Amino acid sequence: MALTDTLPDADWMQRPGLDRLAEALGAGDGAARYVGGAVRDTLLGLPVSDIDVATIHPPQEVVRRLEAAGIKAVPTGIAHGTITAVADGTVVEVTTLRRDVTTDGRHAEVAFTDDWQADAARRDFTMNALYADMQVHALHDYFDGIADLRAGRVRFIGDPLQRIAEDHLRILRFFRFLARFGDAPDAEGVAACIDRANDLMALSRERIADELLKLLVARDAVAVMRLMVDHGIWTPVLPEIDAAAVERLAALAASEAAAAIAPDPIRRLAALLRIGDAEAVTARLKLSNAHRKRIATALGQDGAQPPQALGYRLGVESAIDRLLLSGEIEEAADLVDWTRPSLPLSGGALVERGLARGPDVAKALRAVEDRWIVEGFPDAVRTCAIADEVVAQALRATSIA
To answer: Helix, strand, or coil here: 132?
Structure first.
């Protein structure tokens, strides 16, 4: 990792419209800088998706400048100083420098400022308070964030207890960043998170779920989740996540790696849950119906089936979930590039063979499908032969009755 006084060149810097945006904001005069994740991840050699810019200009002045330059300005969070700029298809969040006036652990009242260090001081971790000029890419580091990046150290800016009091979500963000970037936990930060763990109860469950799902796919998710459980971080809001849950997560992570299947946050959440707890926990976290159903399916137990049969009945994604959770690595890997086939037969074909329309057709079609699955999804010729046998048996049963 090469850390210098200048942000290294990266592909994202060539996105169309960034030069026009920099000119419109007066970046050449020091009025606008890249900030946060784009700077941090570029220094680490990681791909950059979202681009954030900080500026000394008040929000209305940002809008005026953008519109004058023919750049679309969307007031997505104008009350908090954020304007979404769309320049030649490139989307950038532009936010006026801010300082906190009051905080209550969930929301902050802010005032706009032109003081770069004051803006940096209200951010959570030193590695997120890095700025780079939009044109010459000179770095600005007010709290030794570059040194912390080099050391793999996630460190709160200022007093950790105060930063957590300002925004309780920073407890979970601390551990998520530790899982993604950290090499060793910062002792003062961990101690503050332990001391203030009960503050998590004041957060919405949606915010907790969002951070948890991001954490679960981070580089060192298992080790950090174990650290959190050992220190009771989850106990106030998700007591179901215990030491046994972490061991199930560790087993799943090992299976994913062995099968060369990418980590998935919903699958990993399923690993943390017991069958009896899943419905209550997913409801508490206010997950979508689709995610709740996927977790329930992954944890289901309806008898052993060949991998492709499971893939057909559950869907490929859910079948892979269940197989990996069961430690069936090769079977899960076999489904990765498998395409679910379609039964080459319709209910109308059974009517043509003599069955009366209605429930008898549906029952016979299910019987054909079951045999078709057991035989490994044979072609249309064999499927028609199965249908002949099933229909003949149904007609005999009807005549006897």
So the answer is: strand
Among left, alpha and beta (phi > 0; psi -120 to 50; other), residue 168 is alpha
| pLDDT tens track, the chain, 401 positions | 334 589 999 999 999 999 999 999 999 999 999 999 999 999 999 999 999 999 999 999 999 999 999 999 999 988 889 999 999 999 999 999 998 766 655 556 778 999 999 999 999 999 999 999 999 999 999 999 999 999 999 999 999 999 999 999 999 999 999 999 999 889 999 999 999 999 999 999 999 999 999 999 999 999 999 999 999 999 999 999 999 999 999 999 999 999 999 999 999 999 999 999 999 999 999 999 999 999 999 999 877 789 999 999 999 999 999 999 999 999 999 999 999 999 999 999 999 998 988 888 999 999 999 999 999 999 999 999 999 999 999 888 776 65
Burial class (CB in 10 A: 0-12, 13-18, 19+), 382: middle
SS3 131: strand
d(CA 240, CA 88): 48
